[in-house]
Amino acid sequence: MSSESTGELGEPAVRAAEVAEPGAVTIVVPTFNESENVAELLRRITESVPSRLPCEVVFVDDSTDDTPDVIHRAAQDCPFPVTVLHREEPEGGLGGAVVEGIKAAGCDWVVVMDGDLQHPPSLVPELVAAGERTPAALVVASRYTRGGSRAGLAGGYRVAVSRAATWLTKSLFPRRLHGISDPMSGFFAVRRRSVAPETLRPLGYKILLELAVRGRPNRVAEVPFVFQDRHAGESKSTAAEGRRFLRHLVGLRTSSPAARMVAFGLIGASGFVPNLLGLYVLTALGLHYVPAEIAANQLGVAWNFLLVERLLFHDRRAHRRWWDRAGRFALLANADLVLRIPLIALFVHRLGMGTLSATAVALVTTFVLRFVGTEALVYLP
Length: 381
Ligand code: GDD
Ligand code: MN
Known about the structure:
With 381 residues, this protein is α/β, with parallel strands linked by helices. It contains twelve helices and eight strands. The relative contact order is 0.09.
């Protein structure tokens, strides 16, 4: 990462953290090719923040265009320090950039906002004031509270997606997101000392979600805001970003082994669909039901493997090659089946259990063994 600082006009460049003041704010702005927006953003910050609150601005930039140069030029006219951290190897996308910015922040408060002017800079002092007043560790600028709106969310499709994602997310984390009407917002203030950046695992756009769920702030406040239209250019969000969001949700929800086991079980249950479909097709083609069962079962195993790889253990795959993981996974899945019958027999004949309860206990036992085996032998932590 290269970092450069630009101080006030005529002054030597200063490192952001050295000019920090208590009660002041570091505005963190993630940027990806925003050369048409950053000068106007700095102009509007200059207009509405420093007269009410001492500030510095830290851009964390992953651009491939001339955004850093434009920022440096525009910073000449700013009465506050402006820092550009340009990342050569962007990790974690937007969220990763924000975490880098929080690490570099030198003020008591950090306000995170987009670089495309969808978030009004005039609200920055208000967010900090709300945090001081409450007092709260996290203040969310919300589109979905009284007085807020999503005017800049173009098109019914995006509004529907945003609403559905918000609903899903809130139902997955009812306790942690209590009191947050807009957990998807990219505009918020957080007390610097309440954040432990090394505990965060940002993945894409929803960094507020990461802070609210994994960060466990003890008190949260909200301020309404009107989501504006983009000043220039286009949203950088893609379909890949949607898939990343899904993985982020699963990762957050399955941070404990117990939650991971439940997810593993749900994925396993969903495998019945391809399994039964396969069985239907193969027997319809005239195959004897025994080989059909065996083949169809492998279809279910493959389905489970794909989902487990994509969702549950996505960032725990690096230790083994994919065919090694697939082989081990299939071995464990089939061992589960092969083990079940002798286990039931053992429970019935040695322990005198009824067939039904023996089957239930055997199912649970092999499932737990399979989960523990998959965690330990296929995906190392
Ligand atoms: N450094 C860095 N790296 N910045 C990025 C990256 C990245 O990979 N991707 C996007 N950005 C920057 C953009 O340059 C912009 O300043 C800001 O992050 C938001 O990106 P947009 O592409 O404009 O996002 P959006 O308008 O679709 O989504 C915004 O609103 C959503 C609510 O509807 C974001 O704030 C989302 O977090 C928010 O959920
Ligand atoms: Mn935007």
